[in-house]
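Hi there,

I know you've been waiting on this one. I reran it after we fixed the sequence typo, so this is the corrected version. Both the input and the resulting structure follow.
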Amino acid sequence: MKKLLLIIILLLSTLTLSGCNYIELNDMGIVTLMAIKYENNNYEITLELRENIKDKEEASTIHKAKGTSIEKAIQELELTTDKNLYFIDLNIILIDENTINNKLTSIIDYLTRDASFSTNFNIVVDNNVEDTIKLIKQKDKIVGEYIKNIFNNNSNNVINSKFDETLKTYLSEFKDLILPYGKINNNEYTVNEAIIFSNKQIVSKINLNEIQTFNLFNNAKSEYYYKIIYQNKSLVYRVSTHKVKTNYIDNKINIDVSLNGTFIEIEDLDLLNDKILHNVLKILNDKIQKDIDTLIINTQNNESDILAFKKYYFNNQRTKINSIKNLNYQINLKIDLNREGLLFNSIGDTYEKTR
């Protein structure tokens, strides 16, 4: 598949060339990863280029250059690598927090103006790009593809927004940006946290539980697991189907959450016993309510409207609000348990929070 993609890119490129001009495959620099760092009035650009080596599909090289603009740094890279750089297969862009806070507008402007970039890549906040590249290269992997696979694995609850979606959120006046945060943990690269913004500036991070709740809010295609304890025995609830609907009614944000799933890990518990089942589902209900509450309180305290509460308010009131901190909200949660084809009685609860 990778070889086919290279051939297609080559054919398309040669069709646009006049006369007998021809680009050899070895003259093409297929970019899989890009890192951007702004420091001392210069952009430092790091590129990973896939190597065209037979029987070595995981081979790549790393190149760096500096310039007063992203464009000038990339031009320098084309000179030093002696290759025509192609960004159509770009998987990941890594940017550190300082650069994001100071130059994100300029970076997004460049990426949207340059037609050679696709929109099918993820932006990841990473404060230690060199260590990240070194670690993944030691695994004999292409760095861009390795990180991309983390996002493509549905069992990983991550903030998986491609550039077109990121751009839409960045330009919105009713929603704040959220970006995945990558770091090395126990000699593995993880994206278990996320950076949240307020008015295009970083304000805080959220953890894995909060990321799962955020994805649930957005009905994202992912796997959702909730671990609870009942009588010193653990259970894991896996969500099979879910639906979340949010709106602004009766002077508060209403969040309707409907879950259907099953327990995949049960420590010697008889869920056919009505009393046990009711108690277990009540604990599960409280757990999920608390997770939702934790995320909302975090975003309100940081004035980070990643859940688009301002949009729901505007849709109902037809007027804008500057702050989400004092918005009241109500969570309406309904949980169904399906086990071996038997649908148990559902449990529902309403939780209202007044700010």
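Quick highlight: The chain is about 35% helix and 35% strand.

Best,
R. S.
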